[in-house]
Amino acid sequence: MSAPVYVLDTGALMAYAQGVDTVGELMVAAADADATVAVPLVCLIEAYSLLDHTEHEYLSMLRRNPAVRVVTPALHIDRADDCPVIGGMARQAGRLGAGHAVFVAISSAAGLITSRADQVRKVLGDDWPIVEV
Length: 133
Description:
five-stranded parallel β-sheet; 7 helices; 5 strands
């Protein structure tokens, strides 16, 4: 499989868990293209914290999808470390999950699926491929 074509932020994960068709359709298109969809770890944890426990199984099913890749930040205190950059992007976007999603989108040159395009546009700008759900 190739690099991710989309990144799902917290709102996109919640939309998926709540049955929004657009998220599933874009994931099918990615899988058909033999591509992956990235899920930033911070967004995944944020989504679990915001969803009702009865909706958690939808995220578990999503994580089992072979086209989905959960992305963790690089944690190297004495070398290149993603945390300061993600933190700075989160400050601009207004949410920690949004910062991690923007970082993954930029570093992967991937489109971003979100429920809060206004937040991620603060960092990505108007020309970045963003799908609002």
